TrEMBL record:
This is TonB-dependent receptor. It is a multi-pass membrane protein. It comes from Novosphingobium malaysiense. It comes from the Bacteria. InterPro entries: Beta-barrel_TonB, Beta-barrel_TonB_sf, Plug_dom, TonB-dep_rcpt-like.
Length: 829
C-alpha cells in the first residue's frame, strides 16, 4: 500500500492552489461574473448540494476541476494541503491512521473504528484500508473538520474525509496516464473510458496499476542459524490493481440512479518502513555486556538515525514450524465495494434518497517480531475479513417557505473475523506455536436522524437536528496455547446515544458569512482483537464521546480576488480510545486499546486564496492551524520499559513476584525496589499523563502554494508551481519522553508542466519533499536490545534494570521524490 499512497507524494498538488472549501462561494445570479471568481464550490457536508459559503462547516475541498486537471490521487497530498490533518503509516489490516486536530486512531487493534471516518460515494467506512480503493479517478474530496455525527453517523468524532469519485459525463472521454518515480523506481498507470451509451445513461470504466521496487534500502544482516533469511536490498516491493465501473442514469427527470462497482488487489512485501529513532543504550544487547554470549539483535551498521535505510529480516519457515508466503513478511489486501444511490422526487419540493452499500475486505499478512535486523524470536501471521452492509434512507424538502427539513434512517450489519497465530523461533528453544486465536465479531447498528432549518430572515438561518443511534456488538473467541483450547467470553456491548447539533448561519451579503455551531458526537466501544486473550480477561472498551462548538467567518474581498476564512473551535472528549503497548510478564508485549479519561482540543483555522485579476493565471494560497490538544485526565497510563519512578512511573504499586517472575527476582537481587509499610518489596506500574499532548497534534501547522500558468506560442501552455508545508513538533506515542516526538519540519515541493492548450496531452516533472525530511505519525516503544526476549526489563523502580530503556521505532513516510508523468486525453471534436 505504501507504493500506492506514495504516488506523486504531494507532487501532483504542487500545480494547484490549496482550495479550502469555506474559502469559496458562488456568486449570486444577479451579479456580474468577475474574472477573478474561480467559480462555485458545491459540497455535500449536510447531505444536500449547497454552496460552501452558506454551510456552517470548517472544511477543505479539492474540486472536480482541479482533480481533473492535476490528477490528485494521494491522501498524503490532501494532508499537505490541510493543516491539522496528519496520517500514521498503514500497518497490516488497520490501514492508514488519520488524525484531524490531534483526534484520531492510534491503536493497532483491527476491531476499532477510526475517529475520523471515511465516506466514499455515500457509504461510510471505519477502517483506513478503504482509502486506497477510492483514491483514483476522483471528482471531489471534502475534509470536514470536527465532529460530524448528525450527517455522517456515529463514528466521526474527529471529522470526515468524504470522497466522490468521477461520474460519466455527457461527452465521450478517454484518458491515459503514465508516471515514473525515480527514487522508489515506481511505475504507475491509469486508463479511463467514459461517455454516454444511451439517452440519459452513461458509463465510466477506470483502472489503475502500480508497481514499485520500494523507497527504502534494506540493510538487514540475517543470521541464518537463528532462522533469519537475507532479504532483497529494497524494502517495500509492491504491486496493485484498482478497478471501478460507474453506471449513471440521469435524463433530466425526477429520478436519478448511480451504481459504482470497485475492486482492488494490493500486495506489499517486506513490511512497513520501520526504523529505529532512538536507542538509549546503543545497539549492543545488554546480555553480552554482562559477559553472556548472545548474537546481535541489531543489523550491522545500525546507527539509530532516521534516513533512507532500514532493516527488516525475512524468515525461514522451517525454523518457525511453517509460515505463509515462504517466510517473506507481507500484506495482501483484496477489497470489493459496491454502492447504489437512487434519488427521486416523490412530491413537489420533496426528494427521497436511498444509498445502499456493500463492502468486503480480505487481508492476509505475516510480520516478524520485535528484533527485525538479524533474526526474530517471534512471527505473527493473520487472516482478516470484514464485511459491511449499510442502508441509508433520506427525505429532504426544498420548499419556498422559511422552514425545510431532512429526515433519515441508517442501518448497518457488519462482521469482523480475525484468525491469528504467534509462531516461536525453534532455534531459540521456543515452541513453533506459542499462541493462536480467532475472533468473530458482529455489529448491528441502526439510527434515525433529522434536521429542521428555519430561515428566520433572508440573512439568518437557524438549524437544529439530532441523531439517535442504537449499536450492539458481540464477539465469539477461541485461544490456543500450550496445546490447549480456551474459550474466553466478553460482555455484549450496547451503545445508545443522542448526537444533537445546533447551527446558526448569518449572511448579510453575498460575500460574507458568519457561522456558529454546537455539536455532540460519539464513537462506539469495541473489543481488542489484535492479540489472542485468555479467559478472565475483559477485552472490551467503552465509548468515546465529544461535545463542543465552532465559530467562524467566510468572506471574499477585493472584488472577489481574495478569499479569507477564520474559524475557532473548542471540544471536550471523554473516554478517548487510545492504543497502548507494554511488556507482559511472559515477555510478549501487550497491544490493546483503552479509554483514556478526558481531553480537550481547541484552536483556530485560518486560510486565504488570492487570484489577482491583473495577472492572469497566477494564484497564491496559504493556511495556518493553531491547535492545542491534550489530556485533561489520564491517570493510570502504562509505563514505558525502563521508566523509573523519578521519571513519572509512580502510580499503582505492584508487589514483586519472587516465585514466578525472573524480572522481579533480578529487581530484588539488585535492590531495585521500594518497600511498603509492611516491609514488602514493590515497583510501580502506571503513570499520570494528564496534561500531555494527544498523538499527532502539533501546535502549529502551515502550508502555502504559488502557481502560475502562462501561454506558450499559440497552442501550448506552461505551468509552474511550488508548495511548502510546515509542522511544529508533535508526539507519536503515549508518554513523556522527548524522543517520542517527531521534530519540527518543513517540506518543499516544485513542479513544471508543458502541454497542449486544450489539455489533449501534457508532460510534467514533479518533485515533492525536496528538503528530504523523513517524518512519521506512528511510533512504538519496546526493549529490542534484549529486554523482550530475556529478563532485565524493569520499570517503576528507583533506577533502570539491566536492559535499560525501551528503543523507539517508527514507520516513516518517503523522503524526496521526483516524478516524470505523461498524460494523454484525445479530443473527439
Amino acid at each position: 500500500m505504501k507504493g500506492r499512497f506514495s504516488l506523486l507524494a504531494g507532487a501532483a498538488v504542487m500545480t494547484i492552489p490549496a482550495t479550502t472549501a469555506y474559502a469559496q462561494s458562488a456568486p449570486q445570479e444577479s451579479e456580474q461574473a468577475n474574472p477573478a471568481d474561480r467559480g462555485e464550490i458545491i459540497v455535500t457536508a449536510r447531505k444536500r448540494q449547497e454552496s460552501i459559503l452558506k454551510v456552517p462547516v470548517v472544511a477543505n475541498v479539492v474540486t472536480a476541476q482541479q482533480l481533473a486537471d492535476n490528477q490528485v490521487v494521494d491522501l498524503q497530498d490532501i494532508t499537505r494541503l490541510t493543516p491539522g490533518f496528519i496520517l500514521g503509516q498503514s500497518v497490516l489490516e488497520n490501514g492508514a491512521q488519520v488524525s484531524i486536530r490531534g483526534v484520531g486512531t492510534t491503536s493497532l487493534d483491527p476491531g476499532i473504528d477510526q475517529s475520523v471516518s471515511l465516506n466514499i460515494d455515500g457509504m461510510q467506512f471505519t477502517q483506513g484500508n478503504a482509502y486506497s480503493i477510492g483514491l483514483f479517478d476522483m471528482a471531489q474530496v471534502e475534509v470536514l473538520k470536527g465532529p460530524q455525527a448528525l450527517f455522517f453517523g456515529k463514528n466521526s468524532p474527529g471529522g470526515v474525509v468524504s470522497i466522490r469519485t468521477a461520474d460519466p459525463g455527457p461527452e465521450p472521454e478517454v484518458i491515459g496516464r503514465l508516471g515514473y518515480e525515480f527514487y522508489a523506481r515506481t511505475m504507475h498507470g491509469e486508463g479511463i473510458v467514459s461517455g454516454p451509451v444511451a439517452p440519459g445513461l452513461g458509463i465510466r470504466l477506470a483502472a489503475a496499476v502500480n508497481t514499485s521496487d520500494g523507497y527504502f534500502y534494506n540493510d538487514a544482516g540475517a543470521i541464518s542459524a537463528l532462522g533469519g533469511v537475507q532479504p532483497p536490498d529494497r524494502l517495500g516491493h509492491n504491486h496493485a490493481i484498482y478497478l471501478r465501473g460507474t453506471l449513471l442514469y440521469d435524463n433530466g427527470g425526477p429520478f436519478t440512479a448511480r451504481i459504482k462497482l470497485n475492486h482492488s488487489n494490493e500486495y506489499n512485501e517486506g513490511g512497513g518502513p520501520f526504523q529505529y529513532k532512538s536507542c538509549p543504550e546503543g545497539t549492543a544487547s545488554y546480555l553480552p555486556s554482562l559477559g553472556i554470549p548472545l548474537p546481535g539483535f541489531f543489523a550491522p551498521g545500525e546507527d539509530c538515525q532516521v534516513d533512507r535505510h532500514t532493516a527488516i529480516v525475512y524468515l525461514n519457515p522451517e525454523t518457525f514450524g511453517g509460515l505463509p508466503n515462504q517466510g517473506k513478511p507481507y500484506v495482501r489486501t483484496k477489497q470489493d465495494f459496491v454502492t447504489a444511490e437512487l434519488n427521486g422526487e416523490i412530491a413537489d419540493a420533496l426528494t427521497a434518497t436511498s444509498v445502499t452499500g456493500y463492502y468486503n475486505l480480505r487481508s492476509q499478512s505475516l510480520t516478524g517480531g520485535f528484533n527485525p535486523g538479524t533474526y526474530t524470536p517471534f512471527a505473527a501471521a493473520k487472516k482478516y475479513q470484514r464485511k459491511d452492509f449499510t442502508q441509508e434512507l433520506r427525505l429532504t424538502s426544498s420548499y419556498a417557505g422559511p422552514v425545510n427539513f431532512l429526515l433519515g434512517g441508517f442501518y448497518q450489519h457488519a462482521t469482523v473475523y480475525d484468525d491469528a497465530f504467534l509462531a516461536g523461533n525453534t532455534a531459540l528453544g521456543f515452541p513453533s506455536r506459542l499462541l493462536a486465536g480467532t475472533f468473530d465479531m458482529k455489529i448491528k447498528s441502526w439510527s434515525g436522524f433529522g434536521q429542521v432549518r428555519w430561515q428566520v430572515v433572508p440573512t439568518l438561518e437557524l438549524a437544529a437536528g439530532a441523531r439517535y443511534t442504537d449499536e450492539r456488538r458481540s464477539i465469539d473467541m477461541t485461544t490456543t496455547a500450550g496445546g490447549f483450547d480456551f474459550v474466553p467470553t466478553a460482555p455484549k456491548l450496547v451503545s445508545k446515544k443522542w448526537s444533537p447539533e445546533l447551527t446558526a448561519t448569518f449572511t448579510p451579503t453575498d460575500t460574507f458569512t458568519l457561522f456558529a455551531s454546537l455539536k455532540q458526537g460519539y464513537k462506539s466501544g469495541s473489543y481488542n482483537i489484535v492479540q489472542p486473550i485468555f479467559p478472565g480477561t475483559d477485552n472490551s472498551y467503552g465509548d468515546e464521546r465529544v461535545r463542543g462548538g465552532e465559530i467562524g467567518i467566510k468572506t471574499r474581498v477585493a472584488d472577489r480576488q481574495l478569499n479569507l476564512n477564520l474559524a475557532g473551535y473548542y471540544y471536550r472528549y471523554n473516554g478517548l480510545q487510545v492504543g497502548i503497548n507494554q511488556p507482559a510478564a511472559n515477555g510478549i508485549p501487550v497491544l490493546q486499546t483503552v479509554n483514556a479519561g478526558s481531553a480537550k482540543v481547541y484552536g483556530a483555522d485560518f486560510d486565504f486564496a488570492y487570484y489577482p485579476a491583473a495577472i492572469d493565471g497566477l494564484s497564491l494560497h496559504g493556511a495556518i492551524n493553531w491547535n492545542i490538544a491534550k489530556f485533561t485526565s489520564f491517570v493510570g497510563a502504562p509505563c514505558a520499559g525502563g521508566q523509573t519512578a523519578a521519571e513519572g512511573c509512580n502510580l499503582t504499586p505492584r508487589l514483586l513476584d519472587l516465585v514466578n517472575s525472573v524480572d522481579d527476582q533480578i529487581s530484588y537481587a539488585t535492590g531495585n525496589y521500594f518497600t511498603n509499610a509492611a516491609g514488602e518489596p514493590f515497583q510501580y506500574a502506571a503513570q499520570d499523563l494528564t496534561g500531555t499532548p494527544l498523538s499527532r497534534a502539533p501546535r502549529w501547522q502551515a502550508s502555502y502554494g504559488i502557481d502560475y500558468e502562462l501561454p506558450v506560442g499559440e497552442n501550448h501552455k506552461l505551468r509552474l508551481g511550488t508548495t511548502g508545508q510546515y509542522s511544529s513538533k508533535y508526539i507519536t506515542n503515549l508518554g513523556r519522553r522527548e524522543d517520542f516526538y517527531q521534530g519540527a519540519f518543513f517540506k518543499l515541493g516544485a513542479s513544471i508542466a508543458f502541454g497542449a492548450e486544450d489539455d489533449s496531452w501534457e508532460v510534467s516533472l514533479l518533485g515533492s519533499n525536496l528538503t528530504n525530511k523523513y517524518t512519521t505519525g506512528l511510533c512504538f516503544n519496546s526493549n529490542n536490545a534484549g529486554g523482550i526476549l530475556f529478563p532485565g526489563e524493569e520499570h517503576g523502580g528507583p533506577r533502570q534494570g539491566p536492559s535499560g530503556s525501551d528503543e523507539i521505532w517508527c514507520s516513516y513516510d518517503n523522503g524526496r521524490e521526483v516524478w516524470l508523468r505523461i498524460t494523454i486525453r484525445p479530443k473527439f471534436r
